[in-house]
Design a protein that fits this description.
Number of helices: 9
Distance between the termini: 57 Å
Number of strands: 0
Order of helices and strands: HHHHHHHHH
Helix content: over 70%
Structural class: mainly alpha
Radius of gyration: 20 Å
CATH class of the largest domain: Mainly Alpha
Shape: elongated
Number of domains: 2
Length: 188
């Protein structure tokens, strides 16, 4: 079976066998993209599972689909960005709780203590400080080694926009790298 026949099975016959083929073909790539966006494997696995589930539910409503992964990637990307947004909101809430001593809420738990105690590599730490669009495009270009055309297809943006976004992402990375490196030097 190839991708075109698997897509045809999904669209024409609503056959799960075709979708199983697509999941098997793209699950590693999807997981890699999710890890790079979210920063940890557990969240990435959850995002992949949710995204494949959403894609399976949405495929019967499509009239045509030339390539699976660019379409699926938009679903995965939105799922990851939503997870990041929820985490950011939760982080703000926890910060608020810690700042307000009258709440008397226990904010420390074993998993947060473990996360705090684990050190991450400097580059990943810097990437995590960046806006998700910048992090995503830098990872696609420099870690995943996608060319401009591949990035443009995955993100559904023109090649010129890819080049522009990469320029600003590199600049943001450089500034964030200097800031994180300086803060590490001050704490030593």
């Amino acid at each position: 079976m190839d991708e075109a026949s698997a897509i045809n099975l999904c669209l024409s016959h609503k056959d799960p066998t075709g979708f199983e083929f697509l999941v098997e073909k793209y699950r590693r790539e999807a997981f890699f993209h999710a890890v790079t966006l979210l920063g940890n494997q557990e969240d990435a696995a959850d995002a992949c599972q949710e995204s494949f589930s959403r894609a399976f539910a949405a495929m019967p409503r499509l009239k045509a689909l030339d390539q699976f992964y660019p379409w699926f990637y938009r679903i995965l990307r939105n799922c990851c960005l939503n997870m990041l947004s929820r985490k950011k909101t939760a982080r703000k809430y926890r910060t608020y709780q810690k700042a307000d001593p009258e709440l008397h809420v226990e904010t420390e738990n074993p998993s947060s203590l473990l996360e705090r105690s684990e050190e991450k590599e400097l580059v990943w730490e810097v990437l995590e400080t960046l806006n998700p669009e910048f992090r995503e495009i830098l990872i696609m270009k420099y870690i995943k080694d996608n060319n401009y055309e591949e990035i443009a297809a995955l993100l559904s943006i023109p090649r010129g926009t890819v080049m522009s976004r990469l320029y600003y992402a590199r600049k943001a990375f450089k500034d964030a790298f200097v800031a994180v490196e300086t803060s590490h030097a001050e704490t030593r």
